[in-house]
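Exercise 7 asks you to align residues with tokens for two separate proteins.
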Amino acid sequence: MFMRDPIRRFKTAAGRVLAAALAGTLAWGPVPVHAETGEALPLQSVNAEEIGKTKQSLYADIFDQVFYEEGVQFLRLRDLARKITFTKPEAWNVNIYEEVPDSLFFTNRHGRKSLSAAELKEGPKGPAPARGKWTVIRGKGEGVNTGFFVRDSAGNDFLLKFDPIDYPEMSTAAEAVSSRIFHAAGYNVPAYHLVKFNLEDLEVAPDARYYDDTGFEKPLTKDKVEELLLFVARNTDDSFRASASSLLKGKIKGPFHIDGHRKNDPNDSVPHRFLREIRAIRVFCSWVDYYDMRTGNTLDVVETVGGKEVLKHYVIDYSSTLGSAGYDPKPPQFGHEYLFDFGEFFKSVFALGFWKKPWQKRWDENDRTVTDPSLGYFDNRYFHPGKWKNQIPYHAFKDLTASDGYWAAKIVMSFTDEDIAALVQTAEFSDGEAGRLLTKLLTERRDLIGKYWFGKSTPADRFVIKREAGGVRVEGTDLVSHYRLDPAPRAYRYAVHGSSLKGESSGPSVLLQDSALAGLPETFVLCLQSRNAEGKWAKPVELTLQKDAAEGLKLTRIRRKP
């Protein structure tokens, strides 16, 4: 191993001992991957009737997470130990290669095999509303922007949502682009389509109902629909533009908890705060500024997968992404502070007004105006991937580790400039300049995310092993250099655990001579560590290698040091 500061080493060891002593007996059930193969465990059928229907309003979520959880966490020995020792729990569901197996939450897509431009633009599979008359069947019960449910001429149901009257294309464009980004990344997402229609294309079902501003349920008439549409943006030809999201088939069971889990679902045995794909939602949200990511914007649906009835988990509602807050452009503090951010509050109080927050600087530098109404308020000034916040402080997002962020950043960086341009085309902006600007902003933000999270760990990946004359070479790809995120070269050093074998190299490539291999055990650990231009050593990556008669060595495990 590499030499470390002895005091720091002692603190780290003592912290782990204390954390283990306080939290060891409080651990949850088994890790949801096979102990030997590291792949996902087989799915088990669920009894749909035994799965209760959940409901979580924004106000209940705020109370639970902002007030109750923020206070109660100091009474849990496990959480208290981690705060004292400044440690975070590692994700429980990664396989032996530090990857996340496919699950009912996540399916590896673009990060594993690049989707074509056509596949990216198509997004989740689902029929678009059929031509002909659409029947309004009920009003939208939640949310702040106008919307209602319709049934098309083919009998398919959709939720229509509209743009604010002063910001045409803003909310619907955000939903079109961000939903496809989340789908390509790997999450379960309903199908979203941009549609255009006229008032005469709508008819209203006799039993249609809606909730008015006072919360009372009332009949939804054609006159009321016309009145609601007075407050939404229109196209230049006086038609309406809307985002039409397909209603999911199956038995709807309400939202899933971002931190907890369903105790009566055999496929959901681990609290979600320990699942890498749930923690990593924070990274993908930071990319598209999905500030409104919360329990209420998730959905569980009983569906048939592989011949079994299972509970599938969705992330929904993307109208408050990019520069949109759904009803208006995103307020300048969104993404910089929680809805109730006690830390930021006390910093402001003690600063006595002499300290200007980053979002305040950003707002002033933008002359307190929104540059493009169709984009809302979205730029990269003072964007910090590690400090980005959604509105509610869930444990899962706060527990995001460097390894979790690294995994998510690899997926974010898998989107090429051309991929992002193709995704932005689905916004169908009437002004081409808006599309070019959004493509530029998403590309810049992608690179900021990659540079930050790759910098938290040794950015060596995609390892290959090949036989060479006199030895075996273990070679990886430096992702920072590969994506041209930093022109300065990184130096590397390596060491074999339990051995005196060590050295330096200009990249993540190590030639292990046959003479040296002969003195190593059948299975050993090779540790790689990178140093940036400032001379700072990153956290190492450990490769478990096994001697193999054919290739010389076989990679059996990758682990990024916490």
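Second protein for Exercise 7:
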Amino acid sequence: MIQAFFNKIKVSFMNLSIRSKLIIANCIIISIVAFSIGITAYSLYRQTVTNRLSTVNLRDLKQVANSIDYLQKDIIELSNFIASDYTVQKAISYSPEELIMAIQEQSYVRYLINNLLISKEYVSFISVIAGNGFSHYAASDRSFGIPTFQMLSETEYYKKAYDGKGSPLWAYLPIDNTDYITSNKGNKIIMFRTLLKMNDYSTKGFIMISINLDKLKEIYRSMLEIDQSTLILLDENGLPIFYDTNKPTDPGFNGVSDILDSIPEKALNDGEGTEIFTYNGKQLLLTFAPLKNVSWKLVNIVPLQNFAVNVQFIPVIVIIVLVFALFLGFYFTTFTSSMLIKPIKNLLASMTRVKQGNFKETVRVKYNDEVGELCLHYNDMIANINRLLNQVYTLEIEEKIAELKALQAQINPHFLYNTLDTIYWKAVSGDNKSVQEMIHALSKLFRLALNVGKDFLYVRQERELISYYLLLQEKRYKNKLVYNLDFSPNILYYQIPKLILQPFVENAIVHGIETEDKPTNVDILGFMDDERLHFIIRDNGKGMPQEVLDKLLNPQIDANSTPDRGGYGIKNVINRLSIYYGSKYSIDIKSELGNGTEIDIFIPQTPEINIEKGNLKGYV
């Protein structure tokens, strides 16, 4: 099989022109050499740049980790200061009754908390709450309200802090968590710890201090200056606490957890370092470093290509050198050979245009050589073909005109018979006023149907014709007919062949009212649908079986039908539409016995053939 493949390649190559063979052979040799050099240089340079920039990125991430460590350490010292303050110890140690009288101590603690918040710009929230009922908080991010000590004592972080006996507990508190702050206005990283009484180390209160995330963003902002960079803070279990990114929305991005699933396990277990891994088909540079005060880890992820931007220019340089060498090596060969084969190319291009349907094509002859003689014979052949095609087109159009006029002549007697039958029964009943109205409507209807001998009318005129027809039928059937006629304004001034909707409306009424005792509902809708005119005729009649549908949609099945047999007008419409629009129109009939019928007619905005009064216009 491999041998057959190479034989096929060989045959294809040998069938090329001599100039093409020489150019391809030389291009392959030069390309292999240039490609080998480029790949080697690219690999070496990429590895060098990646190693250097990975080191720089790890250094920057460790600086961010150290800054966060410093903030956490300072907050821990701040909490130690509050917990060991003599007045704070007194305030949280009072009984509820004593606390009420200790107004000065309460004021001092509030003053202390407020001033500490003001003095520490990286702190956004401080609260102290004790079991004796004392509580106070201060916030710089518009957060407000803390629950009671009893409510806090039931929370997860209080229980963990209680077990820690005054040790700091760090956690991420999202904005929607109201267990610790009644109205939380932002995501927070909070340190929790219990307040212990100094002399017996019993738990008396609870303290919460949060880091201002805006200040935190200033610390790691430099890590997000690289395009599509993502910074993730992981807890001691390797779960994301929060993340920040400048990565644009990516349809393939399913969240941080999805990225973490692709991260090598080594990166989550080791202390610090860098790794390269693949996510969504892209190579990413992973840098990770731990925090010292808590068992958390900072992770930075950035596409590798953003680090090694300069590496991308190596393939470009190789391609430029390759193109320049090819240009110099084959300039004269291509110039000389092009002069020889240009007439043949012109002849082939002309043949292609003829194949696409342009039979007025000719080739300009400059020289009297063998190619010039071939072009002269080709021009004569195209002229003969064009003359024969014109004769065939003329005969075909004349045949379509005769067929169209015969079909239109069949419509009027059939329609007139049904309408006059309706007026007759009104006259017999003695309803002279209805007869007057119906005759007036019939005259208007005929005026529209005749359309001054034109075969096309506007959609608004077809709508008016249908309205008069429905009026006549409503007069005949009284309360048995309910109809809705609704055409969109944006289609009213498109032209369509006349009398293409009336046969379907007539069919809906005849098969509804004349066969059912219940009222018949008929909806006639028209609107623009995907740049085509879409008409819907829908009724709630008895429906039609499949064999009847097949006959309606395929006029050739029952070619011997006559106006007094069902479906004659519909078959007439299908024949007319096929003449005007070819295969670009469509009719879809959905019907079930007992569930009514819906007819969808799709018509292009313009016909393929437009015949008016025997004149040929716009034949394509």
